[in-house]
Amino acid sequence: MAEEVKKMRAQLEEDEQVASFMRGLRGQNLSDELFASSTVKLRLVEVRNMFHKEALPLVYSPQAISAYWGKRPAAVFTRIFQLLGVAGGFLSHLAGDIVSKKLKENEVARAIELREIVTSLGPAYIKLGQALSIRPDILSPAAMTELQKLCDKVPSFPNDIAMDLIEKELGQPWTELYSELSPSPIAAASLGQVYKGRLKETGEPVAVKVQRPYVLETVTIDLYIIRKLGLALRKFPQIATDVVGLVDEWAARFFEELDYVNEGRNGTRFAEMMRQDLPQVVVPKTYAKYTSRRVLTTGWIDGEKLSQSTADDVGELVNVGVICYLKQLLDTGLFHADPHPGNLIRTLDGKLAILDFGLMTQITDDQKYGMIEAISHLIHRDYEAIVKDFVKLDFIPEGVNLNPIMPVLAKVFDQALEGGGAKNINFQELASDLAQITFDYPFRIPPYFALIIRAIGVLEGIALVGNPDFAIVDEAYPYIAQRLLTDDSPRLREALRYTLYGKTGVFDVDRFIDVMEAFESFTVAAKSGGGEALGGDMASLGSLPSTSRDIILRTTSKDLPSGQMHARVALGFMVSERGEFFREFILDEVVKGLDALSREQVARALPLLGLNRIDTILRSMPVVGVFASALPFMPHRLLPTITAITEEDELVLNNVYKIISFFVEGTPSFRTIDRENGLEVLRLLRELQPILPNISSKLVPEIVSRFASRVVARVLREVFL
């Protein structure tokens, strides 16, 4: 699958427009500068509170904002004139394009103008432009590419204002709190600027972020104006985009970003969620005592941007980053929604540090499980289920007739997943089909999914710099396999069952091995960046208890030297505590396998013991022969039926041999696995004996019980039916 994704990506990116869009999605269009160009002028709204009993809301409320600015028409008109003065040339050019019907032709030129204007208009427009830059359902690739170049870096504001704000927010002069602060900010953005300092109380190095004055006033007045414009545009049905809904959806998260207490709390929660599973992921400590709504103090992290690092372990840290973001997406649900390259740091000791937790989004359980279910359905090309998944995941609104869309999606996915690979894909036809789906049906990119695309895109962009063959699917599928194997939620249990059994309900041994191999790949990635040395839970998946440390676990199928027992990591997981759910899940397949295997062994043994001639012997005995001919349950009648190998048994036996071959490949017993000559079961059990005690006390009674029930049921069926 990964190879096909790489080929498909290469062919798609032969189109310059697509390639440019992908560069932007990966964050490669962003500037790494810490400060804005000297030509950038930031225009903020400085409004004194004339009504002292009133204040702007600290949580997004369109009604409260409207009430506040509705009483300040002079300030609103001043801002409108300011906006028109800056954007007048752009609007006149846009109007000319509409009149001359050259809107599409001049799209890129207008996008460049818009980006330059937005940069100077302040935080609301910069952040809104960045949000739109990853919405292909709203903007064209050309327009998105330009907006992705939006730089959040603006000129710093004076130090004396920053120091006064620290004193006002924290209640003491900065000299009483910090033994030192850098004489000027080390970075400046639209919302605030950062100083490097040291706590006076403990001497610990810290980063101190101070919010820019008048940010709340500027943001809310701009939201008020944009929202008024959106309400007016609703009168024109030919304008499909709901500006009001878009602004409200985005503004709620943006207000959270203005609250540094909330940002610090997010960072602390995020660190707690990663500490046990991924200790190699570092989050700066938040010092709540030195944090307020407009001042944030966190631990200082020394390192370099992952995107600029030339260290040998960058690839491993990207793998850790992919696992980290997939864990947020499919497990914790608290998703870091601002993953540009400047927020991903390689620490001096080779860990991955993640910064800036102001902009977060919450992924619901329905969304988490829905994405995994959709992948399971895609694996089996169950397009009817996939279309329903799209509705659950909010790609298609409720109530839309789904029947006409299924044949089109089936054609698109079948072509993309065709075994012949990318060379068999007609990309023009594929693009045409996708465009037609978007045109004919109300497809949309949910906001949470746009953020997901951006996060994964940034990680892929960093990885591709050092490894052109990197494919995100190589890392994503193993994580999903791990989730399926270890999560005991009912929906994921059903998703695992569907993955292995499909719609037919028949166990797919090749899919089972594929999932187990993906799980082994995950364990390798989870050990990257020091995960194993730090004792991370994910790095230890598949590890055996201390009583079995004489067994070497591995993820390859190559022959290994004798003298010590070798077993696959997948087998280690199967017999570990974390594998308990999965063992129970496939217990019926184990019993089926033992049943078929035992009957096959008995069938092979009968000729050696002469029991294949029991019918002739019994019939030769005068008295017994009479009963032998009459009674259906005599041995000579039961043995052939009880030991007979059916077509279903043949399938089960082939599965058993494939699974055993997978688990013990590279061991001495591997050479004894042969359907023609049988399996040296006792030898295999002897080699696996060191790990069998870990599960025998729990599993053997249950297996024996189910096995006995199966045998008795078959005997009774043969006797009476």
UniProtKB/TrEMBL annotation:
SUPFAM superfamilies: Protein kinase-like (PK-like)
UniProt cross-references to InterPro entries, sorted A to Z: ABC1_dom, Kinase-like_dom_sf, Prot_kinase_dom, UbiB_kinase
Residue span, Protein kinase domain: 180-513
Keywords: ATP-binding, Nucleotide-binding
Keyword Signal assigned: no
Annotated GO CC locations: chloroplast
GO molecular function terms attached to this record: ATP binding; protein kinase activity
Organism domain of life: Eukaryota
Family: Belongs to the protein kinase superfamily. ADCK protein kinase family.
Name of the protein described by the UniProt record: ATP-binding cassette transporter
Protein's organism: Selaginella moellendorffii (Spikemoss)
High-level lineage: Eukaryota, Viridiplantae, Streptophyta, Embryophyta, Tracheophyta
Gene: SmABCA9
